[in-house]
Design a protein that fits this description.
This protein is of the alpha/beta class. The protein has 3 domains: 84 residues, Winged helix-like DNA-binding domain superfamily/Winged helix DNA-binding domain (Arc Repressor Mutant, subunit A), CATH 1.10.10; 88 residues, D-Maltodextrin-Binding Protein, domain 2, CATH 3.40.190; 101 residues, Periplasmic binding protein-like II (D-Maltodextrin-Binding Protein, domain 2, 3-Layer(aba) Sandwich), CATH 3.40.190.10. Helix content is 44%, strand content 24%. Strands 3, 4, 5, 6, 9, 10 and 11 form a 7-stranded mixed β-sheet that branches. Helix 5 links the parallel strand 3 and strand 4. The protein is elongated, with a radius of gyration of 28 Å. InterPro entries: LysR_HTH_N (IPR000847), LysR_subst-bd (IPR005119), WH-like_DNA-bd_sf (IPR036388), WH_DNA-bd_sf (IPR036390). GO terms for molecular function: DNA binding; DNA-binding transcription factor activity. Belongs to the LysR transcriptional regulatory family. One of its GO terms (cellular component) is protein-DNA complex.
Length: 280
């Protein structure tokens, strides 16, 4: 059986090229590296090095062994990270979402149904959310499209309608509905962490200017004291009623302004999440 430290020493030698440099990287004495290389040859029953005066170099067999060592050590590191993430997921649920709106409604429900678990949340890109779900950095994610795959639980959650929020004296205040094109070229107050919604409005309002605010409460306060339009949604108006104060909220009519969210988790975590999924 090959001990892990021997593979670590071989990888260090492969990367550094000399015994002294490998020893320095490993923070051990050079003779220890030399003994490890000799022990590896004895275990594998092959010659891994060409021995020259005052130095050794890897032969072709040694290079192959070093590549295997690197791969095994990478797998070991991945295994440790994955096991730690899984253990953490048994007591901590991090919900990732492509937009903040659905988190506003989901987190209180999750807190009520998953007693004893620590909850956290984050807004991220779809690519990072899917990667994080596989790596167990996220226990559940919220996307704007279903994911039909046997490895995943996928449950339709709810929809969100994007709205324009303006003061009562704004020219658009009398509109029942509005299009993105109607507002192109104007200045907007916008929350900095709206996820995919930022891509939508920047694409559909290409000549607009967006003054981003890091704090959601600051968006509401600034909007109430400003003439500038901002964005809201049926979710934010329901969860933050103060966003209605002194503002008229007009739904966009463009198809891109309404999305349906899906809750997605790994099938193997279904039992853990069952109390929440059953209540939704």
């Amino acid at each position: 059986m090959i001990e892990i430290y021997l593979l670590e020493h071989l990888r260090a030698f492969y990367e550094c090229g000399t015994l002294s440099a490998a020893a320095e990287q490993l923070h051990i004495a050079q003779p220890s590296v030399s003994r490890s290389m000799q022990k590896l040859e004895d275990i594998l029953e092959v010659t891994l090095f060409e021995r020259q005066k005052n130095r050794i170099i890897l032969n072709e067999t040694g290079k192959l062994a070093a590549e295997y060592a690197k791969r095994i050590l990478e797998d070991e590191e991945e295994m440790k990270a994955h096991i730690k993430a899984y253990d953490r997921s048994l007591n901590t649920l991090t919900i990732g979402s492509s937009a903040p709106g659905p988190l506003m409604e989901l987190l209180p429900t999750a807190t009520a149904n998953l007693s004893g678990m620590t909850l956290s949340s984050a807004v991220d890109t779809e690519e990072n959310l899917l990667k994080g779900l596989w790596n167990l950095d996220y226990g559940m994610i919220i996307l704007t499209k279903p994911l039909p795959d046997e490895d995943f639980i996928c449950k339709e959650y709810r929809s969100e309608q994007l709205m324009l929020s303006v003061p009562p004296f704004h020219p658009a205040a009398s509109y029942k509905k509005i299009t993105f094109a109607d507002m192109d070229g104007q200045n907007f107050i916008m929350y900095a962490h709206v996820g995919f919604w930022e891509d939508v409005v920047r694409e559909k309002i290409p000549h607009g200017k967006f003054f981003k605010q890091e704090d959601m409460d600051a968006v509401g306060e600034l909007a109430n004291s400003s003439d500038l339009p901002s964005f809201s949604s049926d979710i934010t108006l329901r969860m933050i009623p103060s966003r209605r104060n002194n503002r008229i909220n007009i739904p966009f009519s463009d198809p891109e302004s309404r999305v349906t969210y899906y809750l997605i988790a790994l099938t193997k975590t279904e039992k853990l999440l069952q109390p929440l999924l059953k209540d939704l």
